[in-house]
Amino acid sequence: MIKPAPRGTDPETIRAEILEKLAYSVGKDPAVAKRHDWLNATILALRDRIIDRWMESTKRAYQAKSKRVYYLSLEFLVGRLLRDAMSNLQLTAAFTEALAGLNVDIDLVEALEPDAALGNGGLGRLAACFMESMASLDIPAYGYGIRYNHGLFRQKITDGWQVELPENWLEHGNPWEFPRREAAYEIGFGGQVVPGIDQNNRHQRRWKPAEKLIASACDTPMVGWRGRRVNTLRLWTARAPDPIRLDAFNSGDYAAALSESNKAEIITRVLYPADSTPAGQELRLRQEYFFTSASLQDIIRRHMQQYDDIRLLADKVAIQLNDTHPAVAVAELMRILVDHHGLDWEQAWEITRAAIGYTNHTLLPEALESWPVHLFEHVLPRHMQIIYGINAKLIADAQKSNFSSDDFLASVSLIDEHNGRRVRMGQLAFVGAHSINGVSALHTELMQQSVFRDLNKLYPGRINNKTNGITPRRWLLEANPQLTALLNDAVGANVMDDATVLTKAARFASDAAFQQRFAAIKRHNKDELANLISARMGLKVDPAAMFDVQVKRIHEYKRQLLNILETIALYNAIRAHPERPWAPRVKIFAGKAAASYAQAKLIIKLVNDVAQVVNNDPDIRDLLKVVFIPNYNVSLAEVIVPAADLSEQISTAGMEASGTGNMKFALNGALTIGTLDGANVEMLEHVGSDNIFIFGLTAAEVDERRRIGVDVVALLDAVPELRIVLDQLGSGVFSPGDANRYRPIVDSITHGDWFMVASDFNAYAAAQRAVDGLWRRTQDWTEKSILNTVNMGWFSSDRTIREYARDIWTVPTP
């Protein structure tokens, strides 16, 4: 293979390449080119440089016969890629200067790049960080997911309510992706399983699907730091084998003519279709099987092409399941090994378990996923047989153990017999994997004690912890370049290679000159966010005020409700006592609620209704503002995170697996107010108890209160401020003309307080007043902010991936 000549990295060479792409790929003259034309030309010029490294990386992995990691995830929230790729190739300055020489502002151009609508929140952003870290650590890896046409949804706020609109991120094409026509696989659904005899005269079962569609691949290069390696994100799109039924078309039945195409394409239309109906449940199951089957077929094709021995699969392949969505991989891999490669059951099971690892992200039973047996049998009849076979072995193992009671057998079984007979996907992933990892120390401990307690007894040693991390390249270098420069001045320029060196800057935390520069950078970032809020929402906020931020998926356990109820109590207190030295605050919310999650959508409405009252009350003299920024995504996070003063990580203890937003905010100098939940526990250990505001019940205390029940009447008698707030909600103070609007929210607290909003209210309010006190001591606040930043290096996703590589995948890292 002839290597291309090295490309110059000077602005003049890059400028010529951009002009060439503008002319011959975009088809525009510079005199008439629009910003979107310059965006495409710039991406294509950069992409050529990436391709050189991409091909070299792939060739190197083949020649070294390297073990490859395959990361299966329903979400990859990669955000915009132009700035990320330029930065990791150290070409940002050269491209900026090249475009400036053409009178093009790179900031205006890159702002036009749409966020890839491939995820929802932390799960997808974690997958994106992991892909970047695997490439940065020179680990040959593929990410596998779905190329959603519309992703989750674009959020619009109309009269305070969330409205879901299609996210048309592919409207103008995607210059980053490469269609791979050769990577196309049949995916079956339904039909029947028929007995037969194989070539070795052994009994076998053959699945004859009633319906088939084609999964086709589109590849996107994932660039590692300093361009050390370029890995592949392979996303699947669906199509019918025959795009149109001409007989139906010619007879005038145009809907029927396109029905098969529509049925296939709907699988990749949206992320997380609502599963509140039987049709929605079936679509979700089809979606998960579609991308999992295509990915496994692709993995095995690549393996056999190089090694031609299926028995070596686990030696050369590490398959990581990111949550339960791809858990059907256990049954699918068994089907492929037994039905298509002729392995006996025990041999296939040994390979399957050795190849698969499973990351659990939740303790919520509904998020672990389970499917009605009748639905599973209808959609995947052969897989249901295989699951019964796996379950038979599981029950046999349990009966041989010391834990063979009926309750224990029912607990470990893959089939839940108590809720209408359902297939437990979390159980399937556990049994079919050699490694099951949690994503924070507390989460892993709770996982062993709760959802997988009995499976852990039966198969001890499989559970391990891998605390999540974030890539500092995206969440420090790109999101906060001025802070990065300050830190480089303090500890040297290798922070992006090893974030743990940040601790060396701790000696500057009390240095007046360093504090002044640090505070000036924070103020600059706050000015940027204030400008964004003004431009998008027409609301003026004071950058000198504390920016108190909670941005994440809207869910009752994440307790945006606790935040806004305490905000109402604060508003009441300011109005009652304007003479007190209040710390001015801007309460910033953002996040999407699942389309079918009525209570979460009502919380969004409440935030906006409170904002309407508070922001228009002249009596509070700008001491308090409330903002809900619509359509939260990665690009918006890159503006919000560096500007935050206070990070709200206030989930009900024991319910947040890890969190990664908490890490991003602290890395950028925000102080955390939070419960002892998820990775907050480890953040406390790293930043120190004096530099974080921890409040509320522990996970054990939450469990105990739920067990014995909460006396809400007595609790509200002891918390009069909250009772007043609930009375205001119930009487329509924030919903004129609709006094019953917030009755479901009031009831959620007064009828049991499952998420401990009332139980934690006093502790949370007290912690907020402690925050006020520190805010007034400017130097102390800045010192603690610096100590948060410099002690967050351990939470790099590079560290997390090194642990996966060492303990689960057995692949080398530098």
From TrEMBL:
<dbReference type="GO" id="GO:0008184">
    <property type="term" value="F:glycogen phosphorylase activity"/>
</dbReference>
<dbReference type="GO" id="GO:0005737">
    <property type="term" value="C:cytoplasm"/>
</dbReference>
<dbReference type="InterPro" id="IPR035090">
    <property type="entry name" value="Pyridoxal_P_attach_site"/>
</dbReference>
<dbReference type="InterPro" id="IPR011833">
    <property type="entry name" value="Glycg_phsphrylas"/>
</dbReference>
<dbReference type="Pfam" id="PF00343">
    <property type="entry name" value="Phosphorylase"/>
</dbReference>
<keyword id="KW-0328">Glycosyltransferase</keyword>
<comment type="function">
    <text>Phosphorylase is an important allosteric enzyme in carbohydrate metabolism. Enzymes from different sources differ in their regulatory mechanisms and in their natural substrates. However, all known phosphorylases share catalytic and structural properties.</text>
</comment>
<dbReference type="GO" id="GO:0030170">
    <property type="term" value="F:pyridoxal phosphate binding"/>
</dbReference>
<comment type="function">
    <text>Allosteric enzyme that catalyzes the rate-limiting step in glycogen catabolism, the phosphorolytic cleavage of glycogen to produce glucose-1-phosphate, and plays a central role in maintaining cellular and organismal glucose homeostasis.</text>
</comment>
<feature type="modified residue" description="N6-(pyridoxal phosphate)lysine">
    <location>
        <position position="664"/>
    </location>
</feature>
<keyword id="KW-0119">Carbohydrate metabolism</keyword>
<keyword id="KW-0808">Transferase</keyword>
<dbReference type="GO" id="GO:0005980">
    <property type="term" value="P:glycogen catabolic process"/>
</dbReference>
<keyword id="KW-0963">Cytoplasm</keyword>
<comment type="similarity">
    <text>Belongs to the glycogen phosphorylase family.</text>
</comment>
<protein>
    <recommendedName>
        <fullName>Alpha-1,4 glucan phosphorylase</fullName>
        <ecNumber>2.4.1.1</ecNumber>
    </recommendedName>
</protein>
<dbReference type="InterPro" id="IPR000811">
    <property type="entry name" value="Glyco_trans_35"/>
</dbReference>
<keyword id="KW-0021">Allosteric enzyme</keyword>
<keyword id="KW-0663">Pyridoxal phosphate</keyword>
